[in-house]
Specification:
112 residues; alpha+beta; 4 helices; 5 strands
């Protein structure tokens, strides 16, 4: 019994590992959409996270680059990985890789 439980746990985790996305390779591709806005980075990020029906992204930040944030959604609803990069504290530049469904929700935050 003690040997079966670890094997069962490994079997349950293996499909998740096999389908993990390589965010770096996604970001090497040409973005599906780009945009710029005069909104502040943190206001834009807050709006995107609060938007209904877009899911909740993982938020990646690096301490030495406060003007950059990357939001990543991993969901079968959006495809493999949906990535949004936002650069610029005051005049944000956006690069987006993913499905139109998520981009349409993000655009509502650009118009505010």
């Amino acid at each position: 019994m003690k040997k079966i439980i670890p094997l069962l746990c490994l079997a349950l985790l293996t499909p998740g590992i096999a389908h993990a996305d390589d965010i770096g390779s996604v970001r090497k591709k040409v973005p599906e959409f780009t945009a710029s806005t005069k909104q502040r980075l943190f206001d834009l990020e807050r709006c995107i996270i609060d938007t209904d029906n877009i899911g909740k992204p993982w938020v990646y930040r690096q301490p030495d680059m406060p003007e950059r944030v990357m939001l990543v959604w991993e969901s079968s609803d959006f495809g493999d990985a949906t990535v949004l990069e936002i650069n610029g504290l005051d005049n944000a530049q956006l690069r987006f890789w993913g499905r139109n469904k998520a981009w349409r929700k993000i655009q509502t935050c650009l118009d505010q």
